[in-house]
Amino acid sequence: MESIQAVKGMNDILPDQIGWWHFVEITTRKVFESFGYREMRTPALEKLELFARSIGESTDIVEKEMYTIADSKGEWLALRPEATASMVRAFIQHNLQADPLARKFYTIGPMFRHERPQKGRYRQFHQIDAEAFGVDDPMLDAEVMYMLRSLLQKLGLTQVALHINTLGCTECRPVFRERLTRFLEQSANRLCPDCQRRRHANPLRTFDCKVDRCQAALVEAPLLLESVCEHCALHFGQVKGYLDDLGAPYVVDPRMVRGLDYYMRTTFEIITDRLGAQNAVGGGGRYDGLVRDLGGPDVPGIGFAIGMERLILLLQQGQPSPVRTPPVFIAVLGDTARHRGFLLSQELRDLGLEVEMDYEGRSLKSQLRRADKLGSRHVLILGEDEIQRNEAQLRDMREKTQTLLPLSEAAAELRKVATVPV
Ligand code: ATP
Ligand code: MG
Question: Which atom of ligand 1 is nearest to the CA of 281?
Fold first, then answer.
C-alpha cells in the first residue's frame, strides 16, 4: 500500500534536529523574561475576520496566503498566519491592560501560510513573537529592538543586520499615499500586474514587490521617510538616538514597508545575506491604532516575530549541533541480570540520569556496540557471575578501563561519574 506523506511545505522536526529547537527556545525564554515578557499561548485557529481586519484586506497574507476553513455552521475560520493579531485579541478579550504585571508578552508556535515551498519558506513554519503594550515612548521601540538583538547575540548569530524605517502615522501617511499614487500613475506601464492593482488598493505595498522591474520603476519614487510629520520625525530621531546609546548598530532603510497594514512609525527587520532570497529572519514594528481598531482600548503597542526555521538554518551554518549528554548504558547478561538492570535503571532515572539498557538479551559485544553508538561513556555491566556475588563492572568506554564494584554502590558511583543531563 502506498504510504501517506505529510502535507507539502509542512515539515516534521526529527530528533536529530530537535536540539537546535530546544536551544533556541530555552535561550528565548531566558532573554525575554529578563526583559519582563511573559508567555502566552493562543489557539492556532481564529475567526477569519480577525486577520482580515488587522493585517489588512489588500495584503499578500490575507489576499492569497491564508488557510481558511468554513466550520459546520458556516462560520469562516483561519489558521493563524502570524501571531500579533491573536495576541492583541487575547489582550483585549482578557482585559489585560488592567493587570499591571501583564504588559509584555511572548509566544512561540506554528504559523500557516499557503506559499510556494522552498528553502526557508514553508506552509507551516514557526515564529517567536513578542508584543509590548501601553507605552508609546521611543525608548520602548529601542528596547524592543535591543531585546531582539540580545537574543540573536546569545544564540551566537552575528552575521545579521538590523534595518529600520518609519511608516509615519495617520496624519502624514495618507498625504504621502496621495503623492505616491500620483508617482505610480506616471510609471504604471512599468509595473507588474500585482502592483497595477496595489497602486490603487495599497500603494505602499509596491515597495515590497519582489519583481525586478517594479523595483526599477520605484528608484525615483518619493520616500515616506522624507515627508513624515514633525511628530514622527522626532520619534524616529529619538529611536535612533537610543539605539546609538545602547551601541546597537542599524541601517536606515527608507524602502522597507513590511507586509502588514497595521504598522505605523517604527518598523524594523533583521536581514541576512546567507539565506538566498529568504533574506528576512524577523521583523516587526509599532502598531498604535491596532488595539483600538480591534475593539479594545486605545493602547499603543509594538512587537516583532522571528522565523524559527530561518534562524535555525543560519545557526546551522556557523556552529556544531548542540550536544546532548549521552545516556548511561546498562548491559545485562542473563535473566537475573536483566531484571536487576531493569530495576536499577529506574532508580538511576529517579536520580536524574538518562539511562538506556538492552531488553532483548543480546550478546555483550552487541550491547557494547550499541552503547558506543549512543555515545555512552559509562556502561554498567551486570554479568551472570557478578550478579551472584552482588557485584557489577563499571566500564569507562573512553579510557577502556573496567572496575569491579558492589551492586549496592553502583547508583551512587554512576551519579558521581556521569553528568546529570539538563
Ligand atoms: P518574506 O518577505 O520572506 O515573505 P514576511 O515579511 O512575509 O517575509 P513576516 O510576516 O514579517 O514575514 O514574518 C516574520 C518572519 O517569519 C519572517 O522574517 C520570516 O523569518 C518568517 N516567515 C514568514 N513567512 C515564512 C514562511 N512561509 N516560511 C518560513 N518562515 C517564514
Ligand atoms: Mg511573506
Answer: 20
Pairing of strands 301-307, 124-133: antiparallel
Please tell me the number of the ligand nearest to residue 110's CA: 1
Class in CATH terms, 328-416: alpha beta
- Residue count of the chain: 422
Pocket residue to mutate for ligand 1, from 60, 87, 111, 263, most atoms within 8 A of Cβ:
111
Instruction: State the pairing for strand pair 328-332/355-357.
Output: parallel
Q: List the chain domain ranges.
A: 18-172+228-318, 328-416
Ligand nearest to the CA of 121: 1
How high is the pLDDT of residue 322?
75
**Residues 197-206 pLDDT 10s:** 888 888 998 9
First-to-last C-alpha distance (Å) of the chain: 42
- State the fold for domain 18-172+228-318: BirA Bifunctional Protein; domain 2 (3.30.930)
Q: What is the pLDDT of residue 419?
A: 60
| 281 touches ligand 1 (CB under 6 Å) | yes
Is the entire prediction scored with pTM above 0.85? Answer: yes
Enumerate residue ranges in the chain where pLDDT < 50: 420-422
